[in-house]
Write a structure and sequence with these properties.
Elements (H helix, E strand, L loop, with lengths): L10 E3 L1 H4 L4 H4 L8 E3 L4 H4 L9 E7 L1 H14 L3 E10 L3 H14 L2 E3 L1 H9 L5 H10 L1
Parallel strand pairs: 1-2, 3-4, 4-5
Helix pairs in contact: 4-5, 6-7
Amino acid sequence: MNALGVPVRASEQYPKGLGHTAPEVADHLNGVQPVEKTCFSAEQAGGLDIADDAQVVLCGIESHICAWQTARDLLDRGVEVHVVRDGVASRTRENKELGIELMERAGAAPTSVETALFDLLGAAGSDEFKTIQKVIK
């Protein structure tokens, strides 16, 4: 379980050819097994079990391919998507920005890691706040 008790989902694009999730990320998935996929959209891959009325905080790579197609498919289903601007990447800055622009034009709300964390917290003074404060420093 993560510090905020928020459900976590993960996917991997063609791990047989591209490799598995980097240890720096995988070590923080707390036992969540990524859904292996060959289609670019994690939503199309199935297995993420995201409810239609859910809110998703979306991070990942490549922002202009996998993140964009996942966001589009979730938005098309009515899922509220928050794209983490400093939590998405692409091999080039231009493609990263294009992916973010596509997601936002489609209806995804822009956010950042800190904004999302403190939005989920709602208030200071809790044990969860102390844990998150250590993470962001």
